[in-house]
Design brief:
Blueprint lengths: L12 E4 L17 H8 L17 H5 L11 H4 L3 H22 L9 E4 L2 E4 L2 E4 L5 E3 L4 E4 L2 H10 L5 H20 L14 H19 L11 H13 L2 H9 L12 H14 L13
Helix pairs in contact: 4-6, 6-7, 6-8, 7-10, 8-10
């Protein structure tokens, strides 16, 4: 899927994984607790509830393997290694939004992605891998433990694959765009199908779709196939509030939704992809 001759910029990804271990794209990973994952998936943008204020990660886990992604230099490596794949997606996402902001007479502010295992220090506190991927507006960084994608596939039935990962990464960068544009709500916002928390999350889904529509324009990737878009849509459905609640609680509680239903998430991801325009992603007005 990546242009094998594309030149990657590994400086956009900071690697804090223990031991610097990495493997092929199909490799499995360790487990994240199901309860922790469910809680994290139902959170808003700032995962403060998952922050481990008391846990002190060992220095070794913070520095060992810090250069593991530094040898991700080409698109060929992104086609072979999951961590290099993350570098490639981050490069493409940020190149597109930087150019798009420039076309609009605005300036995009780059954000690093931090890969970690277990726990790590974030601008929002000490974060656990149980939080899943998240964006911390305090330091403008995206945090993720790659084992999340294995858990998403095993526990919640997502089909997985590169564009499922791409969707998650692009969604978190959607939150960064919201932060840059001053669209993140103060105080967490309100829950429920039409609440501000859901609206913010659906906007991030839509922004992910906009990037997918233009991914090939960045020269890092070829245009996604229908099957690849389908895997992204499947991942969006897998993290719908209604599906998670039904699976874990046996019933659906719409008043507690913070990310949106499976249908809403797919609807707005597809809206972004079909329109390919930032202006199509205004979820703050009307019904969503």
């Amino acid at each position: 899927m990546f242009n094998p001759n594309a030149k990657l910029d590994p400086g956009q990804v900071q690697d804090r994984r223990r031991g610097g271990g990495f493997g092929p794209v199909a490799a499995g990973g360790g487990g994240i607790s199901l309860i922790g994952l469910v809680i994290a998936l139902l959170l808003g943008v700032n995962p403060m509830d998952m922050v481990q204020q008391q846990a002190q990660p060992q220095a070794q886990s913070e520095v060992a393997g810090a250069q593991a992604t530094q040898d991700c230099q080409t698109g060929k490596q992104a086609n072979e290694r999951e961590d290099c794949q993350v570098v490639g997606f981050v490069n493409s996402i940020q190149k597109y939004w930087s150019e798009e902001f420039g076309r609009r007479g605005q300036q995009y502010q780059p954000a690093q992605t931090v890969l970690f295992s277990g726990n790590t220090q974030a601008g929002c506190g000490y974060a656990s891998s149980a939080a899943g991927p998240f964006y911390c507006p305090n330091d403008s960084k995206v945090y993720m433990d790659l084992t999340f994608f294995d858990e998403l596939q095993r526990r919640f039935g997502a089909r997985g694959g590169p564009y499922a990962r791409a969707y998650v990464i692009a969604h978190e960068y959607g939150h960064h765009l919201q932060n840059v544009l001053g669209l993140l709500p103060q105080g967490g916002g309100t829950a429920g199908p039409q609440g501000t928390q859901v609206r913010v999350e659906l906007m991030a889904d839509c922004l992910a779709g906009v990037w997918m529509r233009h991914a090939a324009d960045t020269a890092f990737l070829r245009a996604p196939s229908e099957a690849e878009i389908a895997t992204a849509m499947d991942a969006a459905a897998a993290v719908g509030d209604d599906r998670i609640q039904k699976q874990t609680q046996g019933r659906v509680h719409p008043e507690a939704w913070t990310h949106g239903s499976s249908e809403q998430r797919q609807q707005w991801l597809l809206a972004g992809y079909n329109n390919g325009d930032l202006n199509a992603c205004n979820t703050l007005r009307g019904r969503v």
